[in-house]
Amino acid sequence: IIEFKDGVLSDQWPVSLTDAPADIEGLARLSSSRYCLINSAGTVLTFTLNEDETEATEIIRQGVAGSPWSGDSQIESLSIRKLWNQNVAIWATRGNGATPSRIFFGVVSEGGNVFTANYPTPSTFYSAPWPTPDQRHINALHIDKAGIVYASAATDQGNSGPFSSAIYRIGSFANGSPLPVFTLDGSPTEIYRTTN
């Protein structure tokens, strides 16, 4: 959708994807041409891109199933990875200062039309140890091929900064029945940090 080629950044949004939310917080690949994007209120738009990425088809708009919140939830991220023949998903609120991020996890159907949150433990809470102040505990998530989950945290002191961020290993997925299970590490492991 956004291409950087020969030093030029071009943004080309599929003309048929006019229903996309204005506040996209996460974009995850479900298959080679199928994507899910999520907005801050937990609305997911699933769509298929054609080969030259100019047209979106098979568009499905839905709330994230199993999420026990409504209104201004401030979802900040989404990651999907194929593990144990299932599309394992994790999404989270950003959290802020003393309010931790709330992490949700579950599976997504092949077509992306059903998000199933993992019950009876559909969520867990997480606070990043650094950076501070004006902290967003999670602003991006990633599941690697082994099921390990990484999260980035950042300070948000306005458009002029200063900005600081860190990447942590925060937990991992394990195969479960009927759904995979996410376990938060006892304490996050810092992988990288930057500040300006």
Explain this structure.
There is one protein chain. This protein is mainly β and 196 residues long. The protein is 0% helix and 56% strand. It is built from no helices and 15 strands. Strands 7, 8, 9, 10 and 11 form a five-stranded antiparallel beta sheet that branches. β4 and β5 (43-49) form a beta hairpin. The chain is globular and about 40 Å long. It starts with a strand and ends with a strand. Residues 68-72 have low confidence and may be disordered.
The main β sheet shows up as: 5 strands, antiparallel
Give the SSE string: EEEEEEEEEEEEEEE
Shape: globular
Spatial gap, N to C terminus: 30 Å
Please report the total strand number as a whole number.
15
The proportion of residues in beta strands is: over 45%
Spans of at least 5 consecutive residues whose pLDDT stays below 50 are 68-72
Supply Rg: 17 Å
Indicate the percent of residues in helices. under 10%
Query: What is the tally of helical segments?
Result: 0
Based on secondary structure, the structural category is: mainly beta
Mean pLDDT: 84
Topology:
Blueprint: E1 2-5, E2 8-11, E3 24-29, E4 34-39, E5 43-49, E6 56-63, E7 75-83, E8 86-93, E9 101-108, E10 115-117, E11 123-126, E12 135-143, E13 148-155, E14 164-174, E15 181-195
Antiparallel strand pairs: 1-2, 3-4, 4-5, 5-6, 7-8, 8-9, 9-10, 9-11, 12-13, 13-14, 14-15
